[in-house]
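Look over this record before class:
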Amino acid sequence: GFGFLGSRYLVKIFCLVSGVVYLVLAVPGFFLGDPAMNRDWQIGPVHLMFPDHVLHTILGAGLIVVGMVTKTS
């Protein structure tokens, strides 16, 4: 979707920034989540558990890889 709205440079930046945001969300969950409750981490009304942390890690890493391999020219 975003590829049609802007240049490849913007797509690259979007992927890199989104990937970092997902990793910033995922990594603390592995350490701050309650180990007795499947790494449950509650942020306000949002409940994040181990599968969420894994999903965010995969999405973050994938977006960063796509951002790094995207050519801007």
Remarks:
- The two ends are 19 Å apart (CA to CA).
- Helices lie at 8-32, 50-69.
- The longest strand covers residues 41-43.
- The chain has two helices and two strands.
